[in-house]
Amino acid sequence: MANGSRKQVAFLVIIALIAGLFVIGYLVKDRNVHKIIAVNDKAPEFRLLAMNGRTASLSEFRGKVVMVHFWATWCPPCVDEIPTLDRLYRSFAGKDFEMLAVSVDEGGLASVGPFMQKNRLTVPVLFDPDRRIAALYGTYKFPETYIVDRNGVVRHKVIGPQNWNDPANIAVLNAIMNSN
To answer: Class of the 47-179 domain?
Structure first.
């Protein structure tokens, strides 16, 4: 075999090994992909640090309807939507309802705190800077909202921004609150 042919064979072997490593890496990566949570799925449990310095978990609110809302301050549709969430939160205060606005901002409190103060928002914020909980829900586009019933089951899911003060959205929430 000529020297040039050996180099070509060695080059092809190296390319095949690199391609094989990429395929193995892709297959291993896919094993870690979480299921995308849908309506009628059990909402995954989580515990996150809240803006008030305490931790909160979804299970703490069992017996209430809970809105789990994934958002970020760097997301223009999220920023436009959050005032309607805050008004919804205020209007449902005292009812068997809780809202958990899960921020995926990498800066956590340092990013979200000034935004909340500037906009005079009162909605409870939890921090998921590594997006671990967002991934657990299969959430990669923001904003995304899950309405979880009193038994921990997702009853409504919305991808993208909403006007949460729209009568249709209020009706969906009221129907879930009155269903169990």
So the answer is: alpha beta
